[in-house]
Amino acid sequence: MTFDEIIDFRASNRKFDPEVPVPAEVIEKALKHATLAPNSSNMQLWEFHWTKSPEAKAKMVEACLSQMAARSAQEMVVFVTRRDLWRKRRQWHLDWIDKDAERIGDPNARSIKLRRKYYGSLMPVFYFNDGFGLMGIFRRVTTFFVGLRRPIVRGEGHAGQRISVHKSCALAAENFMLSCAAQGFHTCPMEGFDAKMVKKQLKLPRGAEINMVIAVGKGTKEGFWGPRRRVADEEVIFRH
Ligand SMILES: Cc1cc2nc3c(=O)[nH]c(=O)nc-3n(C[C@H](O)[C@H](O)[C@H](O)COP(=O)(O)O)c2cc1C
User: Which domains, and CATH codes, for the chain?
Assistant: First the structure.
C-alpha cells in the first residue's frame, strides 16, 4: 500500500470478522512500530499491554463496556502512560551518555555535556513533583519571569505533565494503527472504558494512566459506520 492508501484504509471499524484471526506477527510488528513513534525528549513514558490470553481479553471486553468493537475484536492492545517512570528513563539516557562518551573518547565533548545537562538537570525540573503542587508553582513562576525577557517553554504543573505523556502515547497508538492498516487489518481506538477496571486487570501502579485501548481485526462492511466525514478544511486548516 502507498501512504495514501494506508491513510484511507485506517478507518475505525466496530464489527470485526470473527472468521479472520490476526496473526501474532502483525501485532508484534505493529507494537515495534509503536515504540518508534516520536515522543517527548525520547523519555518513552509509555507501555503497550497486549491482552493475549482469552481470559485477559474477556476481562478487557468487560472493561471496555462490552462495546461492539471490543466484543468482536480479535486482538486488543492497551496504551498506557507511565509518567512515574521518569527517573528510570532518565537513568537510561544517562547510561547511554556515559557509553557514548567512552565511545568517542571525550567525556567533555560539547554534545555529551549538553545531553548530560538536559537529562541530568533539566528532566528532574520538568518531571519532579512534591505532591503539594509547589514544584508546579515554582515552574510557572520562574518561566513567567524568564519569559518576560525571552521565549521559553512555559512551566507546568501536574496536568501539563499528564498532557505531555498522553500526547506521546497517542502518537504511538497512531503508529500502531497505521502499521495494522499497512498489514491489512482494521482497528478501533477506544476511550469508552472503565479506567479503574483496566488498571486493575493489568495490575498497573497508581502512576499509570490509560491512554486508549485499540481493538484489531479484519473489518466488516457493517463495522464501518458510514463514510468518513470531516468538517471543511477551512474550519481546521489555517495558513499564516
Ligand atoms: C481517543 C479516541 C477515543 C475513541 N473512542 C472510541 C470508542 O470508545 N468507541 C468507538 O466506537 N470509537 C471510538 N473512537 C473512534 C472515533 O469515533 C473515530 O476515530 C472517529 O469517528 C473518526 O472516524 P475514523 O477513525 O473512521 O476516521 C475513538 C477515537 C479516538 C481517537
Answer: 1-217 (3.40.109.10)
